[in-house]
Each structure stands twice: as structure tokens, then as C-alpha cells.
Amino acid sequence: MLQINNLVVEIDGKRILNGLDLSVKAGEVAAIMGPNGSGKSTLSYVIAGKEDYEVLDGEIVLDGQNLLEMDPHERAAHGVFLAFQYPLEIPGVATMTFLKSVMNAQRKARGEEELTTPDFMRRVKKAAERLHIDQEMLKRALNVGFSGGEKKRMEILQMALLEPRFCILDETDSGLDIDALRVVAEGVNALRDPKRAFLVITHYQRLLNHIVPDSVHVMANGRIVRSGGKELALELEASGYAEYKEEAA
Fold this sequence. Notes:
The protein is an alpha/beta fold. The chain has a single domain (2-248), classed as Rossmann fold. The protein has 10 helices and 12 strands. The longest helix is centred in the middle third of the chain and has 15 residues, at 95-109. The chain is globular and about 55 Å long. It comes from Chelatococcus albus.
């Protein structure tokens, strides 16, 4: 599904990704772990199309198409979704208005008819109940005044409604207590599908206790330096990243 080949990326003249290679199959949950500064979040931003990053070499191919040739909104329409580590507050933009706008924009890009208001409301209500999102949250401005856990639930709600093909979770566990972590993980697990893949970026094993990965990749100095099964995350939890930093240097 996703194939990254020799990806080299800089920002402000500083090299962040150094010939990174990664493959994620349809239906797979791939976890990326690594120390601070290894390039994990940069990888997520470059896949999604965030500006300011300069791609010097390589390609990112999703379902046969090079994402680097697409604008961010085209990547989203192609099925890419990024759940941010720190979701933005957007004062003045009602949550329900935002959700309906993005859902219909995606449908229009795919040549589908826009949702009627009753159909939209039914979809939101069903997904919100599964994620324990109070209806009062949906009446507020997007993420404004939300706790960290509420913001993450709202991100997963968007993912559930948009039904993307490739989902990137950038340190979704950051700032969550154990109850919020379980709710978010349940929402993610409910979306696991043979035709959908996930890239889960995290520092810690605790998230992977709830979202069990099919593969784990260690990232250091802008490259994948080791790959393995879910047991690799337990090894990292016990031993840390020091040896991988040395290997990548």
C-alpha cells in the first residue's frame, strides 16, 4: 500500500531524513518508535504534505501514486489522514460545521454526492457515541477549551467519519490518561480493516498494549535502523535506544 524509497528531507538547511525506506502493507498496523529528534514527526508531516519541508530525494508511493506530486488536499482525497500530536484549536469554527465541510469536500473530490444533513447527523452521532464524545462537545468551536483527551478523541472522530485509506497517528498517546487512551485505542481498533493501513508513531510501549502492531520499526538519525514484530517494542521499552543511535551514526 505505502512504499517509501530513499526519502531525504531538510528543513531550514538541516537534514532530518537521511535516505529513509519503509513499506506498509494494506491491513497492516506499523509502529515507528525512536528517540526525540530521530525524525518521526517529520516523516508524518512529509507524508501528509506539510509545508516548509524540502524533499531532496526519494518518493512516497500510496496505492501506486507518488504523494510528493500532490498538494495536501489531494493527498487527503487520496486517503491520507494525519492525527496530530497537538491538535489545533480553531476559534469561531463550529465543530459540526467543520466536520460536514471536510466530509463533503472529500466526497466531492472522489466524485460522490454530498451528504444530506440527516445522513450527516446520523453518522456523527453513531461515531461520537462509540468514542464517548458528549453532544455538548460537538456544539462548541473546534477543539476550543477541550482537554488533551477530548482533542485526541475529536481527531479519531474525524478519522472515523472520513474513512481514510492510510492513517498516521503522531504520538496520539501524548497527554492522555489511561482511560482516555483506552477510548482512543478502541476507536482506532474499530477502524482496522484489510483495505486500510496505520502508521503509529510513539515513544512508548503503553500505546501498543492497546493498539497491537503487526510490525515495529526503530528510527534513529532519520533512518529506519531495525524492523521486527510487536515483541521489538517490548525490547525497546526494556533497553532503550542507545545502541540504535550508534548504529545509525
